[in-house]
TrEMBL record:
A Pfam family of this chain: TsaD
Record key words, sorted: Cytoplasm, tRNA processing
SUPFAM superfamilies reported in the protein's UniProt record: Actin-like ATPase domain
Source organism: Neptuniibacter caesariensis
Gene Ontology CC annotations of this record: cytosol
Protein name listed in UniProt: tRNA threonylcarbamoyladenosine biosynthesis protein TsaB
Domain Gcp-like positions: 32-150
Record InterPro entries: ATPase_NBD, Gcp-like_dom, T6A_TsaB
Family affiliation: Belongs to the KAE1 / TsaD family. TsaB subfamily.
Subcellular location(s) of the protein: Cytoplasm
GO biological process: tRNA threonylcarbamoyladenosine modification
Amino acid sequence: MTKILALDTSTDACSVALYLDGDIREDFRIIPRQHTQQLLPMVEAMLNKHGVAVSDLDALAFGRGPGSFAGIRIATGVTQGLAYAADLPVIPVSTLESLALAAYEKEGAVKVVAALDARMDEIYVASYVIEQGCPQTVLTEQVSAPSDLQLSEGAYLAVGSGWRYVDSMSEDTQAKINVSAETYYPSASCMLKIALPEWQSKTVAAADALPVYLRDEVAWKKKDQQ
C-alpha cells in the first residue's frame, strides 16, 4: 500500500498529512512564526501515531511555493533532509494549486483563481479549471501588481490572502471574480490529493526538490529597490 507524507509551511498555516491505507490523515495548525519549532514534532507525532517510519514511506510531497520566503525554505529543508536520510523521491506541489483544490472541494467551484499576498504591494496568482478533481492551469502562476492582473473570460471564485488587494484591481478583473467569504490556506492534505494521481511520474530527487519563489528579490525590502 502506498504511503506518502506531505508537508507545508508556505503561509501562517503549518500542516502535515499522511496517505496511508487509502486514507489521508492531517495535522493542520495556524501557527505564525512557529513553523521551525513545530514542523518536525508534527511529523514525528503523525508517523508515530500510525506506526510508520520514514523508511516505510514511498515518497514525500511538499509545498514548493510560492508563498512566504522563510516558510517555503523550512518545508524544503525538512523535506530534503528526510528524503536524503531515507533515500526517498520527492513530489513538489504548487501552493496555489492546493488553494484551488480546496475551494473546489468546499464550494464546488470549477473555475478558481488563487492568490497569495506577496508583500511589496504584489500578489502570487494563478487560475485553474478543475477537471475530474484535478486543477488544470489556465493562468500560469506569476507575481503581479494587483492592478496588472488580467484574467480570461469567465466567472472565477477568488481565494487566498492576495484578494485583500481586490479594490486595486481593474474593473474588468473585478467583474470576472467572486471573492470567497471563506479563508483558505494551502494544506498538506490537498497537496497529497494533487500528488497522488500518477505520483511516480511526478517525483524528483532530493537535490532537485527546490522552492519556487517566483521572484528572486522576494526578501528585499522595498526601500532597497528604489
